[in-house]
Design a protein that fits this description.
Blueprint (H helix, E strand, L loop, with lengths): L5 E4 L2 E4 L1 H6 L6 H8 L1 H12 L8 E6 L2 E6 L2 E2 L1 H5 L4 H4 L3 E6 L8 E4 H17 L7 E5 L4 H13 L2 E4 L6 H11 L3 E5 L1 E4 L2 E4 L1 H8 L6 E5 L9 E2 H7 L9 E2 L3 E7 L7 E6 L1 H14 L7 E4 L6 H13 L3 E5 L10 H9 L3 E4 L1 H8 L4 H4 L8 E5 L5 H11 L6 E4 L10 E2 L14 E2 L5 E4 L13 E5 L15 H8 L6 E9 L5 E6 L3 E4 L2 E4 H9 L4 E11 L3 E10 L6 H14 L8 E5 L12 H8 L14 H15 L1
Parallel strand pairs: 6-19, 8-9, 8-10, 9-16, 10-13, 13-14, 18-19, 18-20, 20-21, 21-22, 32-33
Antiparallel strand pairs: 1-2, 3-4, 5-15, 6-7, 11-12, 16-17, 23-24, 25-26, 26-27, 27-28, 29-30, 31-32
Helix pairs in contact: 2-3, 3-11, 6-7, 8-9, 11-12, 14-16, 20-21
Bound molecules: 5'-O-[(S)-butoxy(hydroxy)phosphoryl]adenosine.
Length: 642
């Protein structure tokens, strides 16, 4: 019998008795209980979920804009992911890795096998001069070695800085320079959509002239190179490595995210608080059970990949699935085939992927048995009703709840969503703050908005979640400016409102940051990059809605001389591929004579946006050059005729 995990009551979906039977959390009272004394609540969870070498002296210390969890507590993160499970779960599969080429064998690692690899690679890192506190750059695709090298860093107390493999050499270089890494772990390449993608030449180019002294290369596509060979080093390395005991607040990793200004911010995450938060959010949101196979499709280059593709399932001695390649290789059935063959029970993915499948031919999905699924997750951007319903009907077959998790790179783990055993599951609505966490909605003066359906700024109140960032790497000013403008609240830079049922609905970013295919991208960063092109004098970038990617950037550029052309537009695209990466590529570039500006010289992106979406722009009277608007309007109109 195929099990049904939800039922419909009124307009909404709720957990079914079947779900209630298996849910870790099914009593709504947990919220009130946790809120009575959140610090005590988290202390209890920290003791139950994580293995400590030494208990903390003080559970929570707050001196805003900084706060620390489990101060004085000592632990090792890799021990929590691996060693502590070996006795009971040593032979359980920790990782199922699916290579993209269909003829290649699926690789499974038990906890014991993974532990051995991690210990070996920790010794390889040590042998190559990495010490506690050093930053290691990791530029790897979705292959097991990404997980192995990250865990190896945590074993010896090195700080990992993972850079998305689709990022360009220049983007990698900037991140290497910020962290001053001496060692770079990369691969010769990877498979994507049936092709061999080169990674090493980008890595090589990025490392040139930086602090990088050694490059360790995983062979994936068997390219010749002169660097340190991962496999050979592993063969020589000892499989025993005493873990470095770290303080709870020690930095565990840096991950870069787009800001409102050009330079990406190095978000700092600590060890203990992050571990506790990753463990419990995964366990309760996805209701992890002993025989579950958990598949989070996010790439390790993003926080979702760190926390939910890799770390949280391992902390929970669960089985995580990792797929190397493209969702449409060899056809759009690939994901669904993977689910059928591996009996995936939880699928956690992004609206942009859902929308892509929604527009494809349904036959690719219908062929496969998806009855192993229990819970579906969504993350990365607001999920629209159409995509939610499609995901619910076609993938979940009206049996599975959709857990729409709102959170950020900065927060380490999920913050707002409905829990599977409690519900409700409402399209476009994220839900409630995780037990023990609290958010409020405020106006620009910091005053709380309690009315329903009124949009304001979504902020978090003290005590702040254990998984939250601990600063911006080497940039305190940025940390304070970006997150603490409301002083006592953490500012998410998202807008939100309460629904009639008192659930939180996210309305999107309030700053100059856009979301392209689930990836944050700052308009400023993209503008800076376009401005570096020799032909460009000045530019402005605005996002417009896109059916599949959510948003895409549109550029308006003023040339230094001459006329715009198709060729130049194409050239800018490949220029951006090189500068940032293909996600940032402008969908269209308009070559304009002037940009609408205020008298103080600020570009009015709001006006450009209105023109693009066909709305009447407001506030033209404050412009220095209102004529520019007519020119742009005509140009957009003309381009739509083509
Ligand atoms: C921004 C953070 C969360 C990890 C991956 C992205 C948007 C994220 C949702 C959601 C509505 C969402 C927000 C947030 N966002 N999840 N379920 N509903 N919006 O991390 O790249 O740091 O982006 O993504 O705008 O601030 P990120």
């Amino acid at each position: 019998m195929v099990k049904k995990y939800i039922i419909k009551k009124g307009k909404e979906y709720w957990p079914s008795p079947e779900m209630k039977k298996i849910a870790w959390i099914k009593d709504e009272k947990i919220y009130a209980k946790a809120n009575k004394n959140p610090v005590k609540f988290w202390e209890e969870l920290a003791l139950e979920g994580i293995t400590w070498e030494k208990k903390w002296d003080k559970a929570y210390v707050e001196k805003l804009p900084y706060f620390e969890w489990f101060k004085g507590g000592k632990l090792n993160f890799s021990v929590n992911c691996l060693d502590r499970h070996l006795k009971e779960f040593g032979d359980k599969v920790a990782l199922i890795w699916i290579p993209e080429p269909t003829g290649e064998k699926v690789v499974k690692f038990t906890y014991k096998q993974l532990h051995k690899k991690v210990c070996k690679f920790a010794n390889v890192l040590k042998g190559n001069g990495v010490k506690k506190g050093d930053v290691v750059s990791i530029y790897l695709p979705m292959i097991p070695e990404a997980l192995i090298s990250m865990l190896a860093c945590t074993r010896i107390g090195a700080i990992h800085s993972v850079v998305f493999s689709a990022f360009s050499a220049e983007a990698l270089k900037a991140r290497i320079e910020d962290g001053k890494a001496k060692v770079l772990v990369t691969s010769d390449g990877y498979y994507r959509k049936g092709e061999k993608e080169d990674l090493l030449s980008k890595a090589e180019q990025a490392a040139k002239g930086t602090t990088i002294k050694k490059i360790i290369v995983v062979n994936r596509i068997n390219k010749e190179h002169k660097y340190i060979n991962y496999k050979k080093e592993m063969e020589k390395a000892s499989a025993s490595c005493v873990p470095e005991i770290m303080n709870s607040e020690d930095m565990m990793f840096i991950l870069y995210t787009s800001g409102t200004t050009g330079k990406p911010k190095g978000v700092i995450h600590d060890t203990g608080g992050y571990a506790v938060y990753a463990y419990w959010t995964a366990k309760w949101n996805f209701n992890l059970q002993e025989d579950d196979v958990f598949w989070c499709t996010a790439d390790v280059g993003w926080i979702t990949g760190h926390t939910y593709s890799f770390y949280a399932p391992l902390l929970n001695h669960s089985t995580t699935l990792v797929y190397e390649g493209g969702p449409d290789f060899p056809d759009l059935g690939r994901w669904w085939k993977i689910i059928q063959e591996n009996k995936v029970s939880v699928l956690y993915t992004a609206p942009t992927a859902i929308r892509m499948f929604m527009r494809a031919n349904g036959k690719f999905i219908k062929k496969y048995d998806l009855n192993s699924l229990k819970i579906l997750g969504s993350v990365g951007e607001p999920i629209d009703k159409e995509a939610w319903m499609w995901y619910f009907n076609e993938i979940g077959k009206k049996r599975c709840p959709i857990i729409d998790t709102w959170w950020q790179t900065e927060t380490g783990g999920t913050l707002i969503n409905s829990l599977p055993g409690i519900g409700p599951f409402v399209p476009t609505v994220a839900g409630k703050s995780f037990p023990g966490i609290n958010h409020i909605i405020i106006d620009k003066n910091g005053k709380e908005i309690k009315e329903k359906n009124k949009i304001g700024f979504l902020v978090q109140t003290s005590p702040f979640a254990p998984g939250m960032l601990h600063g911006v790497y080497k940039n305190e000013k940025k940390y304070i400016e970006t997150y603490w403008r409301f002083k006592k609240y953490y500012d998410s830079s998202d807008g939100a409102f309460y629904t009639d049922d008192n659930l939180i609905r996210i309305t999107g970013r309030t700053d100059d940051v856009m979301k392209v295919a689930g990836h944050l991208l700052s308009t400023a960063e993209l503008e800076n990059a376009i401005n570096e092109h020799v032909n460009i004098n000045e530019c402005a970038v605005v996002p417009i809605p896109d059916k599949i990617k959510g948003e895409v950037p549109i550029a308006f550029a003023i040339l230094k001389r001459g006329e715009g052309s198709w060729a130049l537009e194409k050239e800018i695209k490949s220029f951006i591929d090189k500068k940032i990466g293909p996600t940032a590529r402008p969908a269209k570039t308009y070559f304009v004579k002037a940009l609408p500006k205020t008298r103080s010289g600020k570009i009015m992106r709001r006006i450009l946006k209105a023109l693009l979406v066909g709305e009447e722009p407001k506030g033209l009277s404050t412009l220095l050059n209102p004529k520019s608007v007519d020119e742009i309007k005509k140009m957009i109109g003309d381009s739509k005729k083509i």
